[in-house]
Amino acid sequence: MSKLKLGPIEDDKPVRLTLELPAAVHRDLVAYGQAMAQTGGAPITPDKLIVPMVSRFMATDRGFAGARRQSSKQP
Questions:
Q1: Is 29 left (phi over 0), alpha (psi -120 to 50) or beta?
Q2: Distance CA 65, CA 60 (A)
Q3: Which of 45, 19, 18, 23 has the alpha carbon at shortest distance from 34?
Q4: N or C: less crowded end of the chain, CB within 10 Å?
Q5: What are phi and psi of 51, to 5 degrees?
Q6: pTM as predicted
Q7: Between 25 and 75, where is the model more confident?
Q8: CB-CB contact of 52 with 9 (8 Å)
Q9: Is there a contact between 35 and 70 (Cβ–Cβ < 8 Å)?
């Protein structure tokens, strides 16, 4: 199996957010959580995957990083 982009998921105090996912996205999240279990851990539920996935996406998005730097430079 190829290396997954997500590493161990930290347990942090959450902020409640309610959202609807397409069924296909939910199925993929379940499958991703099961794939993480194959790397030596317990299966991860979709609700625990969404935050690290979005965080990773934003951390690696160069356009977002540039926009964030620009907005912090403005007086």
A1: alpha
A2: 8
A3: 45
A4: C
A5: -65, -50
A6: 0.68
A7: 25
A8: yes
A9: no
Of 42, 18, 14, 43, give the one whose Cα is nearest residue 30.
43
**pLDDT tens digits, residue range 14-64?**
778 899 999 999 999 999 999 988 888 788 899 989 988 998 888 888 888
Both tokens of residue 47? 């609700």
Asked if 49 and 34 touch (Cβ cutoff 8 Å), the reply is: no
CB 22, CB 65: distance < 8 Å:
no
- Alpha-carbon distance of 45 to 2, in angstroms, equals 20
